Amino acid sequence: MVASELSSILDPQSFRVEVPDSPILHLATDSRRVADPQGVLFFAIPTRRNDGSRYIVPLYKKGVRNFVAGAALSGELRTQVDALPGANLWYVDDVIASLQRLAASHRAQFHVPVVGITGSNGKTVVKDWLLQLFAPGGHPVASPRSYNSQIGVPLSVWQMESHHDIAFFEAGISMPGEMSRLQAVIQPTVGILTNIAASHDENFVSRRQKLDEKLQLFIHSQALIYNSDDAAVRDAVAAVLPASVQRLAWGSRPSDALCLLHRQVSRSQTTLSLCWRRRHRFELTIPFVDRASTENVMHCATLMLHMGVQPAEVARRCAGLKAVATRLRLDEGVNGCLLLNDSYSLDLDSLAVALDFMQQESQHKHRTLILSDFVQPDHTVEQTLDRVVSLLRWSGVDRFIGIGDTMLCNQALFVPFGGECYATVDEFLRQCAPDTFRDQTVLLKGGPGYGFERIVRTLRQRSHETVMQVDLSAMVHNLNYYRSLIRPTTKLMAMVKASSYGAGKVEVAGILQYHRVDYLTVAYIDEGIELRRNGITLPVMVMNPEEDGFDDMIRHRLEPDIYSFRIFDAFARAARPHAAGGPLPVHIEVDTGMHRLGFDESDLPLLARRLSEPGCPMRVVSLFSHLACSEDPAMDRFTRGQISRFTHCCDRFKADLRRDDLCCHILNSSGITRFPEAQLDMVRLGIGLYGVSPEPAVQACLQPVSRLVTHISQIKVIPAGDSVGYGRRWVAPCDSRIAILSIGYADGLSRHLGNGHGRVVVGGLQAPIIGSVCMDMCFVDVTGIDCREGDEVTLFGDTALLQQMADAAGTIAYEILTSVSPRVKRVYYQE
User: Fold this and answer.
1) Are the CB atoms for 593 and 645 separated by under 8 Å?
2) For residue 159, what pLDDT band results from cuts at 50, 70 and 90?
3) pTM confidence score
4) If we measure between CA atoms, which residue out of 19, 22, 17, 20 comes closest to residue 37?
5) What pLDDT is attached to residue 378?
6) H/E segment holding residue 209
7) How many CB atoms lie within 10 A of CB 828?
8) Inter-residue contact 781 to 738 (CB < 8 Å)
9) How far apart are CA 704 and CA 693, in angstroms?
């Protein structure tokens, strides 16, 4: 496709095509992810808080020449864009709708099976398993990662090329009316409805309304695959879809197209006895034991049988299914390195995604990529390597290590990136010592069979068996949820104090900076200094500044909370020698009823006068206060009183300072959801960012961020009457099976959780913590639970477990999260 063809598709209000033969090869909606400008068409999507049009001029300077922007673009920015020589411009009413129209037009050119997949859970697993199952002998294409939104779906469909013989696309919705737009883009010939669950229930009148909305994806399909054992799904399919859509049900009923006769689960696999079309009986074994995997493989098997694959071949392929690794893992490496392990899938798209994520990590200046040979469908070796070089140039990699014969033969291409190549992983490990990796971010992208897990073992920092797993994708989800609740003009300050509620301040701050929060807040000066030393450039407020650290604070551009005249005077003395370039930014805290820190309302007139004195070395950036009980409906009268007092203080203080630009903020996480009228100029997001809320309706919208896991060090069988641990505080009431876990109070496990008060999850079941919690270990009663030494144990993962642990310890979730010891390794994941 070339630029001259777009005007009839995009339906622009106005357009200018100066280079009509400009090729349109790639669609982009995020300026940060444009690696190679050649052939890029950028859609400048406006959002509630930003406008993609702001990035047209910077992208033009990088070489992009094709842009779609909103017709409402005006003012100086419109003038700048219109003045770009040689640029092709289309101004449209709705940028996302135009993106979808272009993708729908592209989709219409192909006459191959297109499978549309929707449902509440399992979409990505089913899609990725189908990709594994249809790859032998075929050329499938699928949505990258979880690209199932109004923007992600058209970007997925745009990947279709002439050599593809089948396509698998996910579709996700969160509001009524969205699915019909995605149906027009995907135009599925066959549909798969995975299941229906509680996610996004809050935006629908009923679960049935949401189910009916999802079924709109299949309204013009030839066939639909679904689980007929779910009565709600069965009834909705009968009511919503026309008779022209063939029902390919699977389930336990003999009339189902694929009938599940029996399910046998062993420790490491599941065997399914099946009957296809009441005629063909066969068995299928998968290397998974969970019920969700059974449901997912039933969808896949039904599609394969429908597509003409013989039952024996279906069974053979399903036996080789691999777990879907949907997360990129971050680990502490040797010599201060950070390892990004993404050795699960390898193609140009996944490489670009991983390099993009590496750019988000501001912890190190130096970046290393270790990459194996790989085959890119429909690309020659030369084309693939050219694209790799382009990605390296864009991503700022300064050390490249190639593994494989192709990399070795083309080592000269990678000289500008400090290229070194080896035929095998063995050769690399023999010749390249771990000491050559120091204070850098290392991304590992290895194809199947190359043995990159041995590189990971060599470069990974040895650690304690207890790990805090931090899901950065969940954190971004939570951030976006709260952003959806505030006005576009309201700024957002994110709390990263107490090591980001135990999640790790540097890594979390890097993600928040990438996603453009306005401010960060720490408790103490040393926390802010660590952020600065690791590449965080966002404004940082320090809530508890100490006088002896003011010089360091000023040197690292940190902004203090001034809460008393004593702190005011001390900071003024420290700031005066540094104020030649202008007054230094400070934040003023006022006490409206919490009575912790802050000026009294009666202090504000004098404070304003002192701030207004000639030569004052401080400039107030914001005025703020703390709500004492915003989460408690019984205290709403008190909270509203605090808000009223604060707004009065803001009005008076602004008038006294003669400042209209003062930023005022009082809302915390619960305040954002419960008192939206008090958003003012900025809100402070704390515990909600980490997936915890006392409000059930809000909690249902959040995703847990932190998961604390350990392992079973040893299992003992002890007779009735024997005791466990120090003080003999637990005596076995019967012959018992006891697991010793490698976590204790030095790791942050409260001693209050011993003696049966706390519980952990072992083998999917809850088990009580017994006896006294030791410094480095604890005991769990696993009588009747199928588990072995070395098995993983979850202390908390979902919010219910976290709250259960807090209740058992007589405390709050905040304390449980922030008490996890620094010696517990943090491992980070990103979808």
Assistant:
1) yes
2) very high
3) 0.69
4) 22
5) 64
6) helix 207-215
7) 25
8) yes
9) 10
Token pair in block for residue 601 = 């309302």
Cross-strand partners of 717: 737
Site of tokens 């006022």 = 590
Residues 338 and 330 sit within 8 Å (Cβ to Cβ): yes
Higher pLDDT, 557 or 500: 557
769-802 confidence digits (pLDDT tens): 999 999 999 999 999 998 988 888 999 987 778 9
Alpha-carbon gap, residue 161 to 345, rounded angstroms: 20
Nearest-angstrom CA–CA distance, 454 and 432: 13
Burial 57-71 (b: 16+ CB within 10 A, else e): eebbeeebbbbbbbe
CA distance 579 to 798: 48
Q: Render the burial of 653-682: b for 16+ CB within 10 Å, e for the rest.
A: bbebbeeeeebbbbbbbbbbbbbeebbbbb
Could you tell me the end-to-end alpha-carbon distance of the chain, in angstroms, rounded to an integer? Answer: 32
Please indicate whether residue 639 or residue 467 has the higher confidence score (pLDDT). Answer: 639
Residue 377 pLDDT > 70: no
Closest CA relative to residue 398, chosen from 429, 439, 428? 439
Res. 325 pLDDT band, cuts 50 70 90: low
Residue-wise DSSP of 530-598: HHHHTT--S-EEESS--GGGHHHHHHTT-EEEE-SHHHHHHHHHHHGGGGGGSPEEEEEEB-SSS-SSS
Question: HSE-up of 26 (CA within 13 Å, CB side)?
Answer: 15
CA nearest 45: which of 59, 55, 36?
A: 55
Q: Contact 185/103 with Cβ under 8 angstroms?
A: yes
Long-range CB pairs of 72-81 (<8 Å, 24+ gap) are 72/46, 73/44, 77/53, 81/53, 81/56, 81/57
**Helix axes of 381-395 and 348-360: crossing angle, nearest 10 degrees:** 10
> Which active-site residues does the annotation give?
497, 726
Q: Token pair of 283, please?
A: 């068995």
Q: Residue 133, Cα to own-chain centre: how many angstroms?
A: 27
pLDDT score recorded for residue 807: 93
**Non-local CB neighbours of 636 within 8 Å, separated by 6+ positions:** 674
Cβ proximity of 443 and 369 under 8 Å? yes
Q: Are 588 and 623 in contact (CB under 8 A)?
A: yes
Alpha-helix runs per DSSP H in 340-424: 348-360, 381-395, 405-409
Q: Is 572 helix (H, G, I), strand (E, B) or coil?
A: helix
CB 819 within 8 A of CB 708: no
Distance of CA 822 to CAs 440, 732, 764, 778, Å?
21, 34, 27, 18
pLDDT, mean over the chain: 91
Query: What would the mean pLDDT of 357-368 be, rounded to a whole number?
Result: 80
What pLDDT, on the 0 to 100 scale, is given for residue 722?
Answer: 95
Q: Is 651 exposed, middle or buried (0-12, 13-18, 19+ CB in 10 A)?
A: exposed
